[in-house]
């Protein structure tokens, strides 16, 4: 008995369209790239720190120096727990107080907010004191025009 092969009616080659498949692969790639969480480099290295009596704890999140229109200076300390501490400081004591607080910060950033009526010389003096106290960077706080 002879086995007959089935033949196609049209003898053209079958071409598979790859465009939808590539689209799906790229969508999956984008999905997994967006959904992936990345580990912090510091958290991937497991180390146990040695103990020391002079442990340096970072407890302050931001430091802000405010100057009102009467040239009164206030030091505002925002710690990592969300508590705010505001203290009135004389210009002569600002360097000492700010230096003590800057030792407890990580980035040594100081935000300076001054009333618009404060003269330029007074603002520059406070900025100089903050730099001398050890501020790494100084930011001037402004209000939006909106």
TrEMBL record:
It is found in: Cell membrane. Keywords: Cell membrane, Membrane, Protein transport, Transmembrane, Transmembrane helix, Transport. It holds the Pfam family ExbD. The chain crosses the membrane at residues 21-38. It is a single-pass membrane protein; Single-pass type II membrane protein. Coiled coil: none annotated. Gene3D superfamilies: 3.30.420.270. PANTHER family: BIOPOLYMER TRANSPORT PROTEIN EXBD-RELATED (PTHR30558:SF3), EXBD MEMBRANE COMPONENT OF PMF-DRIVEN MACROMOLECULE IMPORT SYSTEM (PTHR30558). Belongs to the ExbD/TolR family. This is Biopolymer transporter ExbD. It comes from Psychrilyobacter piezotolerans.
């Amino acid at each position: 008995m002879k086995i007959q092969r089935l033949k196609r009616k049209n003898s053209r080659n079958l071409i598979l369209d790859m465009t939808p498949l590539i689209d799906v692969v790229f969508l999956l790639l984008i999905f997994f790239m967006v959904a992936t969480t990345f580990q912090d480099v510091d958290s991937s290295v497991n180390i146990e720190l040695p103990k020391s009596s002079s442990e340096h704890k970072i407890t302050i999140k931001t430091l802000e120096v405010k100057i009102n229109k009467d040239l009164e200076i206030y030091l505002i300390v925002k710690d990592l727990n969300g508590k705010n501490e505001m203290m009135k400081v004389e210009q002569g004591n600002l360097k000492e107080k700010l230096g003590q607080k800057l030792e407890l910060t990580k980035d040594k950033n100081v935000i300076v907010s001054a009333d618009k009526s404060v003269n330029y010389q007074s603002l520059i003096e406070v900025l100089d004191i903050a730099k001398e106290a050890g501020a790494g960077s100084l930011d001037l706080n402004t209000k939006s025009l909106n």
